[in-house]
Design brief:
By secondary structure, the chain is of the alpha/beta class. The chain has two domains: 273 residues, Rossmann fold; 76 residues, formyl-coa transferase, domain 3 (2-Layer Sandwich), CATH 3.30.1540.10. It is built from 19 helices and 13 strands. Helix 1 packs across helix 8. Keywords: Transferase.
């Protein structure tokens, strides 16, 4: 962010968040809160830390993903199975606004750290709980990762091509969607707390967060008995919107499904016969003839290189693009102009990372640092709770921190 972007207090300045989660869903939610000024204390198991520290590409012993997922956070190590560690959590909660957790339902209750117990300490506490199936219902005790939520939520059935095995989106979309719903819940609860003075519990299930994205899936089934099936790169019922081959082996994505856009597209590719066909004037008619329209577009793109196709479509004001790789992203002038690629200093050196969303005009978010080293802030956090150096040393000797 520019130097003057930090002049106003950040949107969540003064908010204290305790993160008791690992891997993706819970930590992604607290990352978003931290980017807008919340103080985030991340609790990790002593000695090993969050497993995400060892996921995907590793440099100097630490995952590069770590410096995205855990930026702006402070690391406190606690063995939550130990009574002394649980007492420290209670002290932290007494001063906190939000607690984020993504353990299996019942885990915190088993440690005496369930919502009812913590609310007795701090009635203003807002507790975000993200789990595979939610805190209630017949599946609540089953283990659930993002991939299972994507399957049960309906996404995996729609991904891929007809007659082939379902494919994953390529990122942990089920976890991330749950994080976004979780943050929305936190912000709603904070707004309500400003009126009532009371906190509340937010119950987010991975499968429900995916299911909420499923558009008209259920009413189409209810009204017509229609089960939507995978359609590859096409967008069923919305025509034309697909990927099309070019003569250099690449693909372009064209969204010509607006009525006036469709006519411009057909004119561009020399198919005014299709552009002026009254049957195809609106989307419902075009969708009945999607194969005809897609074939005409593909015939035109297949005779040209990707760049030529993109430039022609831009000139005709037809939405178009191509699948970006990481190399495309970090070099793209629009990404750079909107500060969506930033560089942070980390123990492994300067590192390019994604920028902050959403963009607030007066109190924008920021990236202060990459992910913390394991237990980096133990002494400072515990001293802030009133523990002496001798007490902290004793906790360390007993493996509590």
């Amino acid at each position: 962010m520019s130097a003057d972007s930090t002049a106003a207090p950040m949107a969540l300045a003064g908010l204290k968040v305790i993160e008791m989660g690992q891997l993706i869903a819970g930590p992604f939610a607290s990352k978003l809160l931290g980017e807008f000024g919340a103080e985030v204390i991340k609790i990790e198991p002593p000695g090993v830390g969050d497993p995400l520290r060892k996921w995907r590409k590793i440099k100097d012993g630490t995952s590069l993903w770590w410096h995205v997922q855990s930026r702006n956070k402070r690391s406190l190590t606690l063995d939550l199975k130990q009574a002394e560690a649980q007492d420290i959590v209670r002290k932290l909660v007494a001063e906190a606004d939000v607690l984020v957790e993504n353990f299996r339902p019942g885990t915190l209750e088993g440690w005496g750290l369930g919502y009812d117990a913590l609310k007795a300490i701090n009635p203003r506490l807002i507790m975000l709980r993200i789990s595979g199936y939610g805190q209630t219902g017949p599946y609540r005790d089953l283990p659930g990762f993002g991939v299972i939520g994507e399957a049960m939520g309906g996404l995996r059935h729609l991904s891929g091509y007809p007659g082939q095995a379902p494919v994953r989106v390529g990122i942990s979309i089920g976890d991330s969607l749950s994080s976004l719903y979780g943050v929305i819940g936190v912000l709603l609860a904070l707004q309500e707390r400003a009126r009532s003075g009371e906190g509340q519990e937010i119950d987010v299930a991975l499968y429900e967060s995916v299911f909420a994205m499923m558009e008209s899936l259920v009413p189409e089934y209810d009204a017509f008995g229609y089960i939507r099936e995978p359609a590859g790169s096409a967008l069923p019922g919305i025509t034309p919107s697909n990927s099309y081959p070019c003569n250099d082996g690449s693909y372009v994505l064209i969204a010509g499904n607006g009525d006036s856009i469709y006519k411009r597209l057909m004119s561009l590719i020399g198919r005014d016969d299709l552009g002026n066909d009254p049957r195809l004037a609106q989307n419902d008619g075009r969708s009945q003839h999607a194969e005809l329209i897609d074939s005409a577009i593909a015939e035109w793109t297949a005779q040209r290189g990707r760049d030529e196709v993109i430039e022609a479509l831009k000139a005709a004001r037809v939405p178009a693009g191509y699948p970006y790789t990481a190399a495309d992203i970090v070099q793209d002038p629009h990404y750079l102009a909107r500060q969506m690629i930033e560089t942070v200093q980390t123990p492994v050196g300067p590192l390019k990372v994604p920028g902050v969303l959403p963009k607030l005009s007066r109190t924008p978010g920021r990236i202060g640092a990459g992910g913390p080293q394991l237990g980096e802030h133990n002494d400072d956090i515990l001293a802030g709770l009133g523990l002496s150096d001798e007490q902290v040393a004793g906790l360390r000797e007993r493996g509590i921190i």
